[in-house]
Amino acid sequence: xxxRRILIIDDEPDLTELxxxxxxxxxxxxxxxxxxxxxxxxxxxxxxxxxxxxxKLPDADGLxxxxxLTALAPTNRIIIMTAHGTIDAAVEATRKGAYDFVAKTGxxxxxxxxxxxxxxxxxxxxxxxxxxxxxxxxxxxFGNIVARSPRMLKLFxxxxxxxxxxxxxxxxxxxxxxxxxxxxAIHYEGPRKRGPFVAVNxxxxxxxxxxxxxxxxxxxAFTGAIATKKGRFELAEGGTIFLDEIGEMPPQLQAKILxxxxxxxxxxxxxxxxxxxxxxxxxxxxxxxxxMVEDGAFREDLFYRLSVFPVxxxxxxxxxxxxxxxxxxxxxxxxxxxxxAPKVLSSAALHVLERYPFPGNxxxxxxxxxxxxxxSEAREVSVxxxxxxxxxxxxxxPTVGPPVLAEFHTGELSDTLHLLFPExxxxxTVRSMETALIRCAMALAGNKxxxxxxxLGLSRATLYxxxxxxxxxDRGTPGSGAS
Length: 483
What we know:
The structure is a single chain. By secondary structure, the protein is an alpha/beta fold. 47% of the residues lie in helices and 14% in strands. It has 20 helices and 18 strands. α1 links the parallel β1 (5-9) and β2. The protein is flat and about 115 Å long. It starts with a strand and ends in a 14-residue tail after the last helix.
């Protein structure tokens, strides 16, 4: 448990000594000051914790000290102590920033103990909430979206122009491209980051319930409505509502969403009262809404109101260079979540991932890496650790160029062979592999044995012996391969 510090500012030595003694016995670290000057100096020097402040000090009124002390250390909790307690003084102390008010009557030590305990609990809870808010804000920032492809960097630059706006946005892209992640980044980097981010999956809520979820309802509005309920728009007040899969919204609700955008008000089911809402609306879909408008499946007026600022997220296969970056990022995350030692991707495994088209986009890549971490027993994630379907699909793709095997170490070469020969009975013999390797080396070296031997890591004499053993010497041409 972190050290819990208390500063007592009181000009009564006996009381100060008694409180310090009792609080120290309870495990607190106590500092004392007998006037406003020394009390303020302690806070200026970095005191962090709970302040017990007397209202009547020899050099100042305790109420006049509340605001300066709060300004110096906003996370501190100030508890006012006074023998002259009045309701008015309590209200004034609270208004100026004091946490609590304790009168110097009855069992003061017990009252102070309870107040101090509550103050520390409140302070720690507030600090924890602030830390969580900062973590969330940092997590959902454009700088934390893993990407380096030109298309994504250009997209981030474009989005930076609308972060501070309340304009409605439509994010389109295939499933798994990270539409909600981008929406959250827009929210948490903008002026509404202290407000709520409310996500609604329009495809995941039955049509009969979606209207109630979005707009809320009054008690008795329909069978089962036993209590009044706020809708998602009201819950998003001061923040952002994210309407995911907006293309799945039924036509009757599309008209109501249009009214919310135009009027900035909502009306709960079973009520005739309109309620103003201050929310930013970001919607997303994997469908082609323009085509849906042409087909009469989506309201044209709503489409144009939603897509004031349209964004098209590219699929992972079109994000050059991002697969390797994302794969390594997800690998680090998965190892940490599974409490496993850090792992690396083999060159062959990375080559396979970069050639795979990832129809499920970023979400599929994350799942693939999570699975690989679970099944891999070595420090290096190999092709064998990837789902078989990925290797099967990559094998069916046209070859884009010869593999650079010279840069592979043994494990990576093994991965490549596994990719080429997925079944045990398909493996070639060692003799046939050696024959093919030496033939290839001699051909690439222009039939010069010295050059081929160097490339294979053999001496010239050893290469000649292998040529003879494998019956690769052209005996019909004297001097062949002797260069």
